[in-house]
Design brief:
Layout (H helix, E strand, L loop, with lengths): L20 E6 L6 E7 L10 E6 L2 E5 L2 E2 L7 E8 L4 E9 L8 E12 L5 E4 L5 E5 L8 E7 L20 E4 L4 E11 L13 E6 L4 E4 L1 E3 L5 E8 L2 E6 L4 E2 L12 E2 L11 E7 L3 E9 L4 E10 L2 E7 L12 E9 L2 E9 L2
Parallel strand pairs: 15-19
Antiparallel strand pairs: 1-2, 2-6, 3-4, 3-7, 5-6, 7-8, 8-11, 9-10, 10-13, 11-12, 12-18, 13-17, 14-15, 14-18, 16-17, 20-21, 21-24, 22-23, 22-25, 25-26
């Protein structure tokens, strides 16, 4: 008889396409430092994982390393440095650990470098969330990020909220404490809020363990909801009954209406204009040329009492860059009006 030994080799191949989720962590002290994360519910193949971060004309290749104890489900590139304001796009592609079918995903977010002395403004890329930082509300000059979604891919508990009347928005650095409150505004979807009384809506903040409701004001036309925030982080519009309401006193409400000299002045290409509102009121803030012709409307909506800073980028209402010269800016808030001069010097 014959003795025969047969050796068989089997190769396992995963044909699933992983669902890739991108997030980030921004250093609250050195705000230019950024860690970019990519996560999936399934294990990922490190050798097939790649990505790019595009900031203006600068494209950086992302080099991901596995996060310890993540079972090859979370990877990070912790060597990113922010260098300018603008929109950042992150593109990532990869496969399952034993797969060959690639998944691709792309995320965008806005970055704004703000000087503490002048404050400023940032909005999410979908245009539905805005934050206005008054003068000296930041501890120092800092990069601020506005992201549509949950930036913390390692914490899925943030997603566990039933009544959603907006996206989750991240204003980063998460946990950064302000020296005076900023104003956060989220525009409302009339379809989503049609089934709920307006006074049941609140902006909620993720405090690290749960969602808490903040004192919020819905505009008279129901177009948006605003609140004061003393710390940056994750925010959403939800129902008051869904969260623990926190009754925070409104701080530093100005005693009178005021419009301040822009900073810097002269300026090029942008300048900040600050004003105080002593009560909730409809406000317009407009730019005129020296002939009194309107150039730009910066503000035209209802605002709660507080301190505000608006940035003028030196463009008119059509998006055209205006020329050097003397310009006037005028605020109208109820019965209060004031006009001041500024100089654009190129």
């Amino acid at each position: 008889g014959w003795n025969m030994m047969i050796r068989a080799t089997f190769a396992y191949t995963d044909t699933t396409r992983p669902n890739l989720v991108v997030g980030f962590f921004q250093n609250p002290i050195f705000s230019e430092r950024l860690d970019v994360f990519v996560a999936s519910q399934s294990k990922l193949n490190k050798n097939n994982l790649s990505g790019t971060l595009t900031q203006g004309s600068n494209v950086v290749n992302l080099v991901f390393q596995p996060v310890p104890n993540s079972n090859d489900k979370v990877f990070v590139d912790n060597n990113i440095t922010l260098s300018s304001s603008g929109t950042i796009e992150i593109r990532v592609r990869g496969t399952a650990k034993y797969g060959f079918i690639y998944s691709d995903t792309a995320y965008t977010f806005n970055v704004q470098f703000l000087q503490s002395v002048s404050g400023g403004y940032i909005a999410s890329t979908d245009g539905k969330m805005e934050v206005e930082f008054p003068r000296n509300s930041l501890k120092g000059d800092a990069y601020i990020i506005a992201f549509t979604g949950n930036s913390d891919v390692t914490n899925t508990e943030i997603e566990n909220i039933n009544s959603r009347f907006s996206q989750i928005y991240t204003v980063s650095p998460v946990g950064y404490e302000l020296t005076s409150p900023a104003i956060l505004k989220i525009y409302l979807d009339p379809v989503k809020i049609s089934s709920i009384p307006i006074d049941e809506l609140t902006i909620a903040y993720w405090d690290g363990t749960k969602w808490v409701g903040l004192n919020s004001i819905v505009s008279s036309n129901g177009e948006f909801i605003t609140t004061e925030i003393s710390r940056l982080g994750h925010f959403i519009v939800t129902r008051k009954s869904e969260v623990t309401m926190v009754e925070l006193p409104r701080v530093e409400i100005p005693q009178k209406f005021e419009l301040y000299q822009n900073y810097p002045n002269p300026f090029n290409p942008a300048t900040s204009i600050s004003f105080d509102l002593a009560e909730d009121v409809f406000v317009t803030l407009k730019i005129y040329n020296i002939l009194g012709q309107e150039i730009r409307t910066l503000v035209s909506d209802f605002k709660p009492a507080g301190r505000y800073t608006i940035v003028w980028d030196g463009k008119d209402n059509k998006g055209n860059v205006v020329g050097s010269g003397i310009y006037l800016y005028k605020i109208t808030a109820g019965k209060f009006t004031k006009t001041m001069k500024m100089v654009l010097a190129k």
